[in-house]
Amino acid sequence: MDASDLATDILALARAQGRTLATAESCTGGLIAAALTRISGASDVFHEGYVTYSNAAKTKLLGVPEGVLAEHGAVSLPVAHAMAEGALTSAGADLALSVTGIAGPTGGSAEKPVGMVCFGLAFRLPDGEVRSQANVHVFDNLGRDYIREQSVMYALQWALEHLKAEA
């Protein structure tokens, strides 16, 4: 299954469930939003996509607290949580995906190597309560494009699994 197949399935399930989507992306630079909007008719489901490459943008557009960024760094589970929740709230969506990571070739460290990507998923329960999850995956360092493409696939697969579980 490629990104187009995943996006098609996500949009169909979200549409059937009456849900709307938003994205907040850093290292993927809008590639998740591009995969979704590549599909005709996405506009009835996909509300907004945020590309927040800088820490300042994460704070300004998504409300990620500066203290969280300072304490944990941009590539962290707490920031992935905050990005997803911020996109969900700002867009008024029902489901939001976030991604923040180190695509390389520079920027990695022993603690946070090139290929480390944190993902967030925020969603609204029927009663309006917001819940979020975050996880981390370290992709093989096979180049910047590879890490970004695999991050898109991972995020889309996670969103699809979530929507299927809600069906």
Question: Can you give me a brief rundown of this structure?
Answer:
This protein is an alpha/beta fold and 167 residues long. It is 45% helix and 22% strand. It has a single domain (3-166), classed as CinA-like (Maf protein).
Description:
The protein is globular, with a radius of gyration of 15 Å. It has a single domain (3-166), classed as Maf protein. By secondary structure, the chain is of the alpha/beta class. The protein is built from 6 helices and 5 strands, in the order H-E-H-E-H-H-H-E-E-E-H. 45% of the residues lie in helices and 22% in strands. The protein has a 5-stranded mixed β-sheet, sandwiched between helices. Strand 4 and strand 5 (130-138) form a beta hairpin.
- Overall 3D shape: globular
The overall average pLDDT, rounded, is: 97
Number of helices: 6
Q: Calculate the terminal CA-CA distance, rounded to whole Å.
A: 20 Å
The CATH architecture category equals: Alpha-Beta Complex
Structural class label: alpha/beta
Q: Count all strands and give the number.
A: 5
> What portion of the residues fall into strands of 2 or more residues?
15-25%
Order of helices and strands: HEHEHHHEEEH
Gyration radius from CA atoms, angstroms: 15 Å
